[in-house]
# Entry
Amino acid sequence: MPAEINDPSNELSEFEKQRLANIAERDALLKKLTLEAQSSGLLSKPSPKTAAGDGSRSKKKATPKKAKKEDEPPVPRRMSARLRGIAADSEVEKRKADEAYEAAQEAERAKRMRKSDFFTLDNMLISGQKLSGDDLLGVDVITKGVAKPYQRTFGEEDVKNTTDKDLKKLREQMSGLQLWELWEPNRIKITPERVYTMTFHPSEVKPLIFAGDKMGHLGVVDASQERPTSNVKREDEEEEDDPDPAITTLKPHTRTISSMVIQPQKPTHLYTASYDSSIREMDLEKMTSEEKYAPEDTTTEDPLSGIDMAPDDPNCLYWTTLDGAFGRYDVRTPAKESTVARWQLSEKKIGGFSLLPSHPHYFATASLDRFMRLWDLRKLSHTDPVPVGEHESRLSVSHAAFNSVGQIATSSYDDTIKLYDFGRKGIASWSPGHTLSDDDMKPDTVIRHNCQTGKWVTILRPQWQQNPQSPIQRFCIGNMNRFVDIYSASGDQLAQLGGDGITAVPAVAVFHRSKDWVAGGTASGKLCLWM
# Structure
């Protein structure tokens, strides 16, 4: 016989009894509160219809009436856009947004597009004094790793311990160069933005420095100027007013000025190449700027990375591009005739190049594909260009600079400066089609040098002094420890230039062609000048 099953509903546990008592007490309290609210007018009594119809459903909580504010003005009724006769917001706003976007895009395109016009000084002047040709020149001209700020790697002890007399003399001479004493570098803002390229005017009478920046500005500083005096007293009447140096800022380009050159036979003309795809000629006597080369279509973008000219030819421009091309153009060509010669020498960016001054049919390129290549224009095919020779570095090569005796200096992201001596290998006597083996293309000297500039510092590039006053060839290059280093062609360090007031890396460093003047430009547009 099956066991008897007890019905749990017959007996209530103590817990269940307490739960039911709590429910009853809560219902009584709610009923009492409801009655009190109705008697005070805070809650309206339910209509009979609602009370009868909703008996089977749970009752909703009553919402207290909000007291009407007497002093509130009546709020106007909202009307739809359709009743007010206005088109749908989505269409209007979409059209406005499209028009604003197109206008912004067009403004940006116009800002970046090169200007092919003929510029006068008034067209280009951004700030500073207006210069005339006499003010700017007025002199006889020549017709020939990890950065550790302020930590020196070369100094007085190295000079004292030099045993070679000629080398010691040159080291003392180069190390004796001093910063321009009239103003500290942090007060000489030669360009508004980061300096990308610099050059000296070839005049030996006064230092005249040109600098191009990231936004297409051209800064000009005449370092022969005297410090102006002023009788204006400051509030404390202890120090006289101290004006900054006179600097002229022009804007011949719409984008970065990547390179510039002054042809020795034409010292009154400055040529500038830019990422806006153009080369412009600035007449330093007339103070005008004229476009000398650019793609025919103004919307075509062909950013230029370098420019050079042969010392014996003032009419031919040579340049390289960010897409690996090399070009040549004779400025005497009529505008309607297109005689631009162009070779595609690399699949990647050519960061820098230079002609061999004594034999300008030879030129060297440095590219992002890690190669330094030597080329001969006398034997250069447009369809399948073959170099005289090439050397591969571990990382990209930033620049390849020729000096007057056939030596090349390169800088590379593998933290080296490499020196190649093709003059010793007989480059002056090579016939067209001459080639070099991989062994012949190996560097003669490798110098350890921190080239890790990062995003905000301009790439370090070696620059030779083209006409040194002694048989020892020398070049300069920026140092990430906030110096400028000077080396000989054999790799011996000659000097490490620094000084007070240098608050950033003088990454762009250049020599004067013949005088022992060195200029450095920083990411903040400041000029460091040693003389």
Q: What stands out?
A: The longest strand covers residues 195-200. Residues 1-5, 48-61, 136-144 have pLDDT under 50 and may be disordered. Residues 153-225+244-530 form a domain with the Methylamine Dehydrogenase; Chain H fold (CATH 2.130.10.10).
